[in-house]
Amino acid sequence: MSEPQSLIAEGVSRRFRAQVAVNQASLELMPGKITALVGPSGSGKSTLLRLFAGLERPDTGRILSGDRVLSDARTALPVEKRKIGLVFQDFALFPHLSAVQNVMFGIRGLNKPDQRAAAEAWLDRVGLHHKCDAYPHQLSGGEQQRTAIARALAPRPVAILLDEPFSGLDPSMRDQVREVAIAAIKTANIPALLVTHDASEALVHSDEIAVIDTGKILQTGAPESVYRAPATLAVAKALGPVHSVNAAALPDAWQRQLQTASGTLWYRPEAVQLGDGAEFPIIRTRLAGPITEYELALSDTERLFAACQPGTVLRNAEMLAVRINPDLFYDFGDGSI
Amino acid sequence: MRGVISWRLPSATALPALLVIFMVTLPVCTALFAGLTVGGGSTWDHIFTNRLLPYTATTIFVLVLSALLMLAFPVPAAWLVSRYEFPGRRFFSWALILPLAMPGYVMAYAWADLAASPGPLQSALRDATGWSARDYWFPNVSSAPGLAFVLASTLFPYVYITARTAFSMQTSTTLDAAKSLGANAWERFWRVGLPVAIPAICGGLCLALMEAAADYGAADFLGVQTLGVGIIRSWNSFGEPNTAARLALALIMIAGAFFFAAQYLQGRGGTQHTGSKWQTPKRGRLSARHSAIATLLCTLLLLICFFAPVSRLIWLSLETRASAADLVPLLRATLILSSLGTGFALIAAFVFTLAAKNDGGLRFGTRLAAAAGYAAPGAVLGLGAVYILRETGQALSASIAILLLLWIYVSRFTSAGVEPLNATLDRLPRNLDNAARSLGSGRLARIWRIDLPLLAPGTFAAALILFVEILKELPATLMLRPTGWDTLAVRAHAYASDERFAQAMLPSLLIVLAGLAPVLLLSWRLSHSERQP
């Protein structure tokens, strides 16, 4: 097998009638790395996946595998010739074939017994060896999705694209299925694209994150750097909760630390933590699992949100002493989106 | 750029699909064309006043009356069955579909005999009262109202099924809300349940009326001059092909209007359950008196529309002891024609289904073609075939007649085969095709490895429905069959028309028995799908 190549989108656009679904998007999916494509619904992430897969043709721009053009505005290599594995939210297992027959479906160039052996090895890798002969309707949702991932990887594709693969699963089994699936994808050492609207899934399981909104790639980079240093408010919102505060309402010492030009600052809730910086009265307390969220009164109109892990949960009207982490405060300029 | 090939491959299913679209629509288009273009002048005046007007008026009268009958009794029955528990409910809920197994003409034979002066009903009346035949009035089945009654008796399950489905799909929360606002049982039906279900019910009614408009056998036997009868009489007896073409045009417009109305209404019917919490309603209990009324209504419906006529057929068949030897050539012709017709229509249905699935551009064309054939009455298609024959200058030899007849079967019934196949496809995950493509399967490989195996379960239902529909077909078979190729339907019609009533019974009974198979399958499916969450 040849050296794994990057899968690249170069300035691709795709419009459906009047609506631009993907707008001048460029993204490189590197071998051995899982790139998460994150964005709200309708942001164009599934369309970009379909452009990579060849299910859609770009109006402008190109899709390349290494330096080989897969599609551009005039020509396109059909899906069935791309050798790109696809995994769908609805699993899309062939209902008339058993698990092992599903996995055998795309394996070529081997005789039947060898195909079966290869397929069984893949099912073994995702922990389903004992379900080889079960039909899709006899498998649980998580087992169906693991079979779908084994099926996509078995033909040794040049890349794998996963469209919301875990969002159809019961939350109780999602983590376990995800661990097994991600491990199997990692061993294949090919470019992998994980389309998801679940920011925490993207942050935990990807090597690279690309944030997309209204068809444009807003920022790419390592999960931590994109999370901690979002370029725009939309990126910040895509990866987790952010709040705004009028800088003038903050204590002077904090204002000197933060240095804002526009007057409005955005921050992650964990930017405000327990510590001896300043004290404010608690207006509202919300216990959210291991973390407690406090709404504090800076003044009559301004609020400050803090996410902390206190020893005991404090009540309304009590005073809370907090300090800030300036790295998690952002100044996006006036009304920046 | 090596290895990159042009984006749009010619579709492997497009060419056969275009060919089948042409085949399916040609007869109805020919009939339409003939209807629009045949001569005018004084002949047209004659056609208009003496033929078109009276035939159309009679047809519309029959349709209106049967529509009223189909709404008056089956809709309340459907409401009771889906909303309340009463003795026999489970049995009635599926058994009320049984009348679909009886073609209109068989129902007409049975009721003409049951209600005749020497028949069992009037005999019983005279025995009970001591009257003579001149002392009382009794409804005459051989009349336009009689035809409306006969057609409503066989076709009401269309209305019943859609009404029952619509009623049992309504969320119980809206009805609970009505209850909390003080609506009693009657008001809940009249002000909430019924209005919400009206689009669906009217959709079912329109399909039933389309079938009623297409009837030839019952009207001809009962001597009612409907358009269907007019077409075949104008062609066969009066030697007026122009009249036949004009009448066919009127009939196809009526049937087509009902078809498109049904499509429109059924599309709207889908918007009725908007509640996010979808709860299957719990059936209410009825008081003893109301239970008795519900059971009585359903029993009478079933008795009048199925068990009484079928028992009469069985009784008369046993009484006459028709020799089995007479049946052999009929069965042979029926089996050969129905099997061949089923085979061809099934191929056409496969081509349509696969083309519509794989090629968005063809979806509309295949749908329209199937719909055009389905909405066209057999008499119209038969006429279209004869016109095609005349235009091509062919003589109607036996083999050509059989080919033409098979062609008409395909044209008329392909849509009946497409439906179960599509229902099978609809249940499958949307991305199967994309998954197969990403695993390297080309279009033909996908048809072979994915589509055909997955369509297999739908194929059985499609073949069964097609076989029985073709077996029951009367007008086109009557017009086109070569000598020696009488089917059960044609012979039953011939015997009944010759007043050799007793002989007509055994072929009729066999048709009903065959017709029961797809009806039972349908009813099993309906109750099965209701039980699923």
Sequence-ordered SSE layout with sheet pairings:
The complex is a heterodimer of chains A (337) and B (533).
Chain A lengths: L6 E10 L2 E11 L4 E5 L6 H9 L6 E6 L2 E4 L7 H4 L1 E4 L11 H6 L7 H14 L15 H13 L5 E5 L7 H18 L3 E5 L2 H7 L2 E6 L2 E6 L1 H6 L4 H7 L3 E4 L5 H7 L5 E4 L4 E17 L2 E7 L5 E6 L10 E6 L4 E2 L7
Parallel strand pairs in A: 3-8, 3-9, 6-7, 7-8
Antiparallel strand pairs in A: 1-2, 1-4, 4-5, 9-10, 11-12, 12-17, 13-14, 13-16, 14-15
Chain B lengths: L13 H24 L3 H32 L1 H10 E2 L3 H7 L8 H11 L5 H10 L14 H26 L2 H9 L4 H30 L2 H6 L4 H10 L4 H29 L14 E2 L2 H33 L3 H35 L1 H16 L2 H15 L5 H29 L5 H7 L4 H30 L2 H6 L7 H10 L3 H31 L2
Parallel strand pairs in B: 1-2
Structural class of chain B: mainly alpha
Chain pair sharing the greatest interface: A-B, 36 and 27 residues
Rg of chain A over CA atoms, rounded to whole Å, is 24 Å
What fraction strand of chain A?
25-35%
Multimeric status of the protein: heterodimer
Q: Largest sheet of chain B, if any?
A: 2 strands, parallel
From the spread of the alpha carbons, the general shape of chain A counts as: globular
Share of helix of chain A, binned: 25-40%
Total beta strand runs of chain A: 17
Count of beta strands of chain B: 2
Strand sequence of the main sheet of chain B, in spatial order?
A: 1-2
**How many H/I helices of chain B?**
22
* Alpha-carbon distance between the two ends of chain B: 52 Å
Verbal overview:
The complex is a heterodimer of chains A (337) and B (533). With 337 residues, chain A is an alpha+beta fold. Helix content of chain A is 27%, strand content 32%. Chain A has ten helices and 17 strands. Chain A has helices at 45-53, 79-82, 99-104, 112-125, 141-153, 171-188, 199-205, 223-228, 233-239, 252-258; strands at residues 7-16, 19-29, 34-38, 60-65, 68-71, 84-87, 159-163, 192-196, 208-213, 216-221, 243-246, 264-267, 272-288, 291-297, 303-308, 319-324, 329-330. Chain A has a six-stranded mixed beta sheet, sandwiched between helices. A four-stranded antiparallel beta sheet of chain A has the order 2-1-4-5, covered by helices on one side. In chain A, strands 15-14-13-16 form a four-stranded antiparallel beta sheet, with no helix packed on it. The longest helix of chain A has 18 residues, at 171-188. The two termini of chain A are 45 Å apart. In chain A, 42% of the residues are buried. The mean pLDDT of chain A is 89. Chain B is mainly alpha-helical. Chain B has 22 helices and two strands. Chain B has helices at 14-37, 41-72, 74-83, 89-95, 104-114, 120-129, 144-169, 172-180, 185-214, 217-222, 227-236, 241-269, 288-320, 324-358, 360-375, 378-392, 398-426, 432-438, 443-472, 475-480, 488-497, 501-531; strands at residues 84-85, 284-285. A two-stranded parallel sheet of chain B has the order 1-2. The longest helix of chain B has 35 residues, at 324-358. The radius of gyration of chain B is 25 Å and the shape is globular. The termini of chain B are far apart. Chains A and B meet through strand 5, helix 2, strand 6 and helix 5 of A and helix 18 and helix 19 of B.
